[in-house]
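1st attempt posting a full record on here, be nice pls
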Amino acid sequence: MNAIRILSAGAGAAILVLTLAGASAVAADPSGTPAIGGITCDRAEGSVFHIHQHLALFDHGRPMTIPSDIGRPLAGECLYWIHTHSPDGLIHIESPKFQTFTLGEFFDIWGQPLSATRLATAKFARGQLHAFVNGHAYAGDPRKIELLGHSVVVLEAGPPYVSPPAFTDWQGQ
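the predicted structure (as tokens):
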């Protein structure tokens, strides 16, 4: 319940204080689908911020499929701001506000692990994750890779490792 209090500050001035009691830290869309990392699942795609990225994953040299409809829960009639439509590696960010999104948030929405030694369903017997952003090696935490417009991200669990493939098919994106 919202409460409004007016506190006297002397000399006729007043301070208005708004207290939000019982506010939940986890937002949800009307169908009850929980927010993930502050990203809500909305009834329609956001129209304020709309960009795309390409993600390619490799498990010991073999391409991994990134499923369609990541970010579209089966039980909810909603769509997370970060999602896929098809199994081609294109990530769509369609948000109602401008903000920086990360690869870690995409993996959280997907429900798959991502770290220096974990990549979705890939098995790490030895070796570690190799990451590339726009063709350049990325040495930091892969969860912190920023999803910028037309970024190309390649993640490889290996060995063996393959040369990061180029992606240029942004037609219509």
